[in-house]
Amino acid sequence: MKFIKYLLFDLKQGILRNKAMVFAPIVIAATAFLDFASKAHRLLLDGRIRESVSYGDYWFYLYGGMHKYTPSPGNGFRFPVVWIVVFLVIPFVLLNYPFKDLYGVGQQILVGSGRRTVWWLSKCCWNFLGTVMYHMLMQLTGLVLFLVFQMNVSNQIHMDFINLVFEVGHQEVWNRVALPLSVLLLPVLVSTAISMLEMTLSLFLKPMFSFFAVAVLFLASAYLLTPLLVGNYAMAFRYNWMLKEGVSINVGFGVSIGLLLVSALVGLVRFRYYDILESE
Amino acid sequence: MLKRMIRLEVHKALRNKLFYASIIVGCAITIIALIYNVGIYQDAFAMMNIADGNPEYEGFSLFNHWIGGEPFSLGTAIYFFVFPLLVAMPYGWSYCEEKQCGYVKEAVVRSGKKVYFLSKYIAIFLSGGLAMVIPLVFNFLTTAMFIPAVVPSPVYCTSTGVFFNSLMSMLYYSMPFLYVLFYLAIDFVFCGLIACFSYGVTCFVRNRAIAVILPLFFLLALHYSRQFLFTSYDISNREISPMYFLRPVSAWAQASWTVIIVETVVLFVITVFLSMIWERSHEIY
Question: Residue A152 domain-assigned?
Fold first, then answer.
């Protein structure tokens, strides 16, 4: 009962009353849509793509990331800005609330109830639901814009468009026509795992350092195609479903769920000994 | 009073744990680039010895193997992505904290608003500029311990990444040390202003982590705007993203003085307005 009360409080204060949580995904999705639609329109007019794009292409534009990077003097590293923005905004939006709560009204609740485990688990659920809601809002915004502009709403993808937009060169890619459910779910799951990791890291480091660590993790993942860097599982282009030498989707699910649970558990243990009276 | 206040603020800015942390993290990132580049140089050197051909000394120089001279190593990619955090971290947040703990009131009573805000601006500017430049200088010097400073030749422009239309390319191929010095100066000024942007943000936010992180998103937004401007490969574009033009070697489009000066002036005007005019005109008690 107490857990439900804590959780409802967190959902209300940390999600519904958090304007950035609601507006950031809408603004990002709308801006990306404008960019995506204008690019697709230009390519169609130039005759470089055969047919108009669909919602699946838009989704891929947001969550695709980038192909494998091969370092060379003539090929400077260019980070995938759309993907970085999509995945880096949510750790930023979620960074503040747990500590604001801990050093504010939450401290009173925590001292009064004397139950740290419930407080932490409630924050974990809030973090998970917040991240899922962020991605849902982003995708819903895209969906609404597709309906408003009467564009093709389906999970179809067009490889000619993707090859051009992602500047696919020598990389060997499979010729796909539609997005499967596993591909749609994995980036969101990875995002929840990384948000949880960040919240746990904030108990060991200052919040700005935990954000710094997450930013470095995302950039390193974009630079290196390796199953060891979890960010690779957040890039639809890096899956072996698309890129022949890509990372496994199944392993991605395992790694993300593992990271999510380990982060929550480590955070739980750490929080039991955390000095809650220490000011930030 | 102004001198004393500036000295006090600069002392606080450069003698705090976060300034040291920022320098240490920055230097650690540059070491990743150093290891990678020294590896490349030694491999190339070994290959040249085996092949017994043209040693291509000008193609493997300090100037295209320090962190600012190449756009392709992991260290470079990380450093020129996280630098907005590194420059805001040392002291960009200070006003936020001083407002909350009441220090501002004490300081303003003794020195006056103008002196306090000006000295804080100068201290934050210096801390931001130094936090960017010190790791770069550290990398330049450590790379110089392994790779000779051969004057680059335009013949190897595909290796150096500095082409005929690059910013200060003449200087690069004639006086490369001066070229590096100029770029360090550009980085110092621009990053000082980014740190001051963080100071401007603290006029509106109460959380110091947000104040430190927001400049990164500001630069990401500017970077993303390229998608709307660079719509065709046929147009000769100039780099507008500081995440790319602050690198002495271009990652994609070439840097230009016009863009750098315009963005510097705009950033200066915004930060001065926020910190010296907007905040000064507001009640602090």
Answer: yes
Binding-face residues of B in 126-155 toward A, CB within 8 A:
none
H/E element, B53 = none
Quick check: is A43 in a domain?
yes
Instruction: Flag whether A279 is in a domain.
Output: no
Domain of B70? 2-278
**Neighbour count for residue B260 (Cβ, 10 Å):** 20
Q: Is residue B284 part of a domain?
A: no
- Tally of domains in chain B: 1
- The Cα–Cα gap between A219 and B73 comes to 12
List the domain range (segments joined by +) for residue A233. 2-272
Residue pair B276/B118 in contact by the 8 Å Cβ criterion: yes
- Domain assignment of residue B285, yes or no: no
CA distance B19 to B25: 10
Q: Return the minimum-mean-pLDDT range out of B122-126, B194-198, B237-241.
A: B237-241
Report how many domains make up chain A.
Answer: 1
Q: Which of A222, A81, A208, A29 is nearest to B219 (CA)?
A: A81
Taken as a whole, chain A contains a residue count of: 280
The answer to whether B64 contacts A73, with C-beta atoms less than 8 Å apart, is: yes
Q: Inter-chain contact A38–B228, Cβ cutoff 8 Å?
A: yes
ipTM reported for the complex, 2 dp: 0.92
**pLDDT tens per residue, range A215-272:** 999 999 999 999 999 999 999 999 999 988 899 999 999 999 999 999 999 999 999 8
Contact with chain A for residue B37, Cβ under 8 A: no
| Within a domain: A277 | no
Pairwise pLDDT comparison (A217 vs A103), residue with the higher score:
A217
**What ranges in B145-225 are assigned the alpha helix state H?**
157-160, 169-174, 176-201, 208-224
SS3 content of chain A, % helix, strand, coil (to 5): 70, 5, 25
